[in-house]
Write the structure tokens for this entry.
Amino acid sequence: MVLGVDLGGTNLKAAVVEPDGRIVATTSEPSLVAEGPEAAVARMTALVERLSLEHDFDAVGAAVCAPIEKETGRIAKSASLPGWVDVPVGDMLEKSMSMPVTLENDAASAILAEWWLGAGNQEPVVAGLTLGTGVGGGLVVDGKIFSGARGLAGEFGHISLADEPECTCGFSGCLGRLAGGTATGARYERLSGKELVRTDEIIRRAENGDTAAQEALETTVDYLVRGVRTIVNLLNPDVFVLCGGLSTGWGEPLAEAIGAGLKDTTFPGLDETPIRISKLGTFAGAIGAARLALDNR
Ligand SMILES: [Zn+2]
């Protein structure tokens, strides 16, 4: 048995998973990342210790909402972790926990989980996006996360589509800054003159005929189509998976809208790439981290 933990900007999630993929238990609590890296690592360690009293796991996978350098286990900077700059999170987790820890980016973990047990269906090449407050990305080839030379491959949220706004990656106009939940909320606020609301509420208002909500989401979809088209043209995946709150909250209509946007605007035939919504939902990142712990045991 292994444990996957997923440190997000809002929640700290965990999943206890059997080697055959059976999910034994899941938990979620506030991540309180604004308290800083030491507090977050202490909180993750406490969660692992608490769960180890009830479940007999012997390795931990940790998914973190930041780009992670493979060699050093360091986070340089992350839009989701304000104030975390040049943090050696891999070393901190290793020292703090009493068992081996495998570290990975949360979006890559989520796509791996979908490859293993969800919408990716163990196809050879599975690419995907996680749509939360920002946009994460992941690429799984033959059941392994493709992480590139320094561990930073697959950061599809940083496909640059415009001249602004500035982004934590050092450049500007990135997909995540234009199509994430924060951007969608700000767009709705601007169009409606109403206070910023959560993305799931914007989806609900759009369904009920709120034209500002519809327009805000249409623009988000337009950016997503441009991002997915680029990824599909570059990588020709067997399946494209959409994870995260916006994906599961909106569901099939989002997958259909992106599929329609690709129609006749990709290399021949690639517009038929299946676009699928996450089957694992909110615990995908934790489940993918558990899979990594299994692979590295
Ligand atoms: Zn960027």
Remarks:
- The radius of gyration is 18 Å.
- The longest strand covers residues 23-30.
- The pocket of zinc ion is lined by residues 158, 167, 169, 171, 174 (CB under 6 Å).
- The chain has two domains: 2-109+283-295, 121-279.
